[in-house]
Amino acid sequence: MPCLEPIRAGLAALLLVLPFGAAAQESSGQETAAWERSQSGEVEFADLPLDGKGRFTAFCRMTSAGPVAGLALFAPQFQTLVINRQHYGLIIVVDGVRENFHMEARDIELWFEARDLNQQTTLARFFDTLPNAQRIDFAISSLGWRENRHAENGAVLAGLMDNCL
Questions:
Q1: Residue whose C-alpha is closest to residue 135's, from 147, 121, 127
Q2: Are residues 153 and 96 in the same domain?
Q3: Are residues 26 and 88 in the same domain?
Q4: Is residue 96, in this structure, part of any structural domain at all?
Q5: Quick one: signal sequence residues (predicted)?
Q6: 9 class by beta-carbon count within 10 Å (0-12 exposed, 13-18 middle, 19+ buried)
Q7: Which domain holds residue 65?
């Protein structure tokens, strides 16, 4: 039946394309996350959920020495990868704008606190890009770790760092 050959070829091509299209849609759905803002005592913060119960946090906390702005990063993989008090270079790319932060391991989280003017300027410049961010890429090359997110709800970040930076 030669007349069925074009139909079989078209059906085979369709069957090959469908799984990839579904996977692409599923993948992009998994990469979308919404910022969530909260407060706990003297700390005001916003979390961006990451894969597998991970999170990226921007915070402003009040201390006796004054306000401190910073970032914290947690990923379940860090439990076996990071060494306490070791420093790691975190690269964050927000819609093509790259910033580097020197994070310190504290138990299984990585922390950055803007203590001097240079760090505060870097964090302020980075934070200015977040409310309208569409895509955020995170990477720590020394750990072989990478995460990508399409961020939503950036409006909740407005005013978060007003008292810190």
A1: 147
A2: yes
A3: no
A4: yes
A5: 1-24
A6: exposed
A7: 34-157
Round to whole Å and give the CA distance between 103 and 64.
23
User: CA geometry: angle at 158 spanning 154 and 161, to 5°?
Assistant: 115
The reply to whether 164 falls in a domain is no
Residues 90 and 116 in one domain: yes
d(CA 151, CA 94): 10
In tens digits, the chain (165 residues) has pLDDT values of 555 454 444 434 433 333 333 333 334 444 788 999 999 999 999 999 998 899 999 999 999 989 999 999 999 989 999 999 999 999 999 999 999 999 999 988 999 999 999 999 999 999 998 888 999 999 999 999 999 999 898 889 999 999 898
Residue 163 belongs to a domain: no
DSSP secondary structure string for all residues of 3-59: GGHHHHHHHHHHHHHHHHHHHHHHHHHHTEEE-EEEEETTEEEEEEE-GGG-EEEEE
Q: What CA–CA distance (Å, rounded) separates 12 from 3?
A: 15
